[in-house]
Design a protein that fits this description.
With 140 residues, the chain is of the alpha+beta class. Helix content is 46%, strand content 12%. α2 links the parallel β2 and β3. It has one domain: Class II aldolase/adducin N-terminal domain (L-fuculose-1-phosphate Aldolase, 3-Layer(aba) Sandwich), CATH 3.40.225.
Length: 140
């Protein structure tokens, strides 16, 4: 077994918000088992967010459970694999998946508002064509 602990910037928001980190492309498929969030304050209220002893390590492992990735609130993530290459692969593609996930969410918000504007403009053009009795809906 191998473990990688990472401070990947794109992963941080998923540990501090209610947005779940889900696989959005095939390279992130190992995230299908989930990416639970470890809240160290439940174990040690005055924590510096570091796993400093066996008790905290066991609590982190308990949150990981049967998953391949555990997010650490305010501290990012830890992934596991059967080998060092597999754990490194998972660390890299957790970051990539999080980056794509964030882009998807922001582009979805932009595209839905622009799609709404485009649909409204199409409706206005169509309504204008049909309201002109000489056009038969074909436009000018």
């Amino acid at each position: 077994m191998a473990v990688v602990h990472s401070h990947s910037p794109s992963v941080i928001p998923f540990g501090v918000t209610r947005t779940k980190l889900r696989p959005i492309y095939h390279m992130g498929s190992f995230l299908y088992s989930g990416a639970p969030v470890f809240e160290i304050r439940n174990e040690t209220p005055d924590s510096d967010l570091l796993i400093r002893d066996n008790r905290l390590g066991k609590a982190l492992a308990g949150t990981l459970g049967k998953c391949n990735c555990v997010l650490m609130r305010g501290h990012v993530m830890t992934v596991i694999g059967d080998s060092v290459p597999e754990a490194v692969f998972r660390a890299i593609y957790t970051e990539m998946n999080a980056r794509l996930h964030s882009r998807r969410r922001s582009s979805k918000a932009r595209s839905s508002s622009s799609a709404t504007r485009r649909a409204g403009a199409r409706w206005r053009r169509t309504a204008a064509r049909w309201s002109d009795p000489g056009s038969c809906g074909r436009g000018a």
